[in-house]
Amino acid sequence: MSNSAKAGDAERRRAFAALLKGKRRDKDLSITELAKIAGIAKSNLARLEAGEGNPSLETLWTLSKALDINVRDLIDPASQSTRFSRVEPDYEARAEDADFRVKLLSTCPIGSVRDIYRAVFQPGKLKISEAHSRGIIEHVIVVSGSARIGPLEKVETLGPGDYFSYSGNQAHVYEALEPYTTAIIIMEGT
Predict the structure, then answer these.
(1) Potential cystine with 188: which of 32, 38, 44, 137 (Cβ 3.0-4.6 Å)?
(2) Of 43, 77, 111, which residue sits at a domain end?
(3) Same domain, 67 and 114
């Protein structure tokens, strides 16, 4: 693992530790009380809150149930105007007893509606989409090929498995870099 990857991993552990501690304090629970409710060792919970461990997927579900919150609030609580994720894992939750990993790409706000599209596009002509109505968020996952996608001021190059989301209320582009580039586009709105 490179030094920058190690630094990023340490930063994610610190951020998770602060988040977990904050959620526990929001419920006015001590470490001992939360460990008892969740059925996990107090020492393991203390290590997580100190930023010294990576919780398994099972631990995340157990803690979310004990704290009476959605597991997504522990996996990825950040709300950003744009999100970009490479297929390489920057943070994933892993199961304890199987080769099973998840990475939360996006949450759907309560009361929202999502439409899902498959897009196939070719190199050559740039597709410029005008701004959609207010409140529309576009989520794009490239399935095959590669493309330059995003708001005009923040275009990203995506390859297979990469994810990008951005506000659809601004002009944005789709430019295939390879023939038959395929992407899943999810339009979210309220």
Answers:
(1) 137
(2) 77
(3) no
